[in-house]
């Protein structure tokens, strides 16, 4: 068996913390010999925030499947970025479709972010790794593991559908929040694809994978895994396809489910 879990809205509470109970349960699962993989839309640079709250550094599939990361060796095992020519065409299509679009890219395997002048950037611990570009062509000059798309206040599902239509045939579009942010990856890159690569490398059959998630970007992973679980706060699209709905992220739903697996039958 392998445990694959999303972070935001699933393992993490709404304040982006991991409860001591969850950290303890993950350590006990790992110590019992069951591998755990973090599968997130977040970039590598953000993971230090998570690893600082865990007892054991866990491997991660980042940027919605574009990057597979080994935290012990601090080494990227696999990357599947949007190449500059594709990135430029995607950006052009989006600017044509939504003139007010705001763009940013995750580059250097997700260790750095670049953004155009209008893109809203939140302050935080990773601010030193975020840089504004002056010219639009600078944004698409190097491979990017993810393109971030905003256009002011938008319905997240409708905007993801609009962006998906604009980039169809070139890239994948999804979303993992309710803020109107859409995430674009290279064609064929999803959480399922990244996790499948990790499992194939480790000789783990998909039927033995237990996956947890809460948002549309988790749907490919949940439908791929042998058993899928949605947390109680999950998006309707996730609840619809999950095998089971468990407790919410705020009530440590993932940890309580895993803790039940550890108990003698």
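^ Assign residues to that structure.
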């Amino acid at each position: 068996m392998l445990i694959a879990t999303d972070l935001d809205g699933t393992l993490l509470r709404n304040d982006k913390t991991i409860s001591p109970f969850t950290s303890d349960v993950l350590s006990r699962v790992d110590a019992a010999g069951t591998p755990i993989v973090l599968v997130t839309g977040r970039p590598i640079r953000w993971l230090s925030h998570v690893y600082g709250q865990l007892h054991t550094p866990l491997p991660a599939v980042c940027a919605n499947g574009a990057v597979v990361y080994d935290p012990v060796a601090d080494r990227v095992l696999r990357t599947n970025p949007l190449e500059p020519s594709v990135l430029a065409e995607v950006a052009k299509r989006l600017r044509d479709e939504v003139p007010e679009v705001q763009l940013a890219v995750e580059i250097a395997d997700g260790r750095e972010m670049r953004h155009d002048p209008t893109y809203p950037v939140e302050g935080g611990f990773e601010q030193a790794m975020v840089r504004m570009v002056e010219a639009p062509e600078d944004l698409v000059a190097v491979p990017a593991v993810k393109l971030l798309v905003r256009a002011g206040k938008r319905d997240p599902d409708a905007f993801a559908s609009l962006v998906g239509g604009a980039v169809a045939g070139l890239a994948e579009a999804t979303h993992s929040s309710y803020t109107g942010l859409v995430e674009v990856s290279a064609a064929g890159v999803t959480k399922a694809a990244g996790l499948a690569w990790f499992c194939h490398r480790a000789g783990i059959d998909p039927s033995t994978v237990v996956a947890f998630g809460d948002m549309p970007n988790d749907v490919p992973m949940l439908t791929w895994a042998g058993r899928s679980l949605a947390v109680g706060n999950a998006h309707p699209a996730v609840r619809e396809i999950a095998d089971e709905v468990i407790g919410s992220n705020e009530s440590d739903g993932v940890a309580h489910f895993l803790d039940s697996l550890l108990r003698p039958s």
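The radius of gyration is 18 Å.
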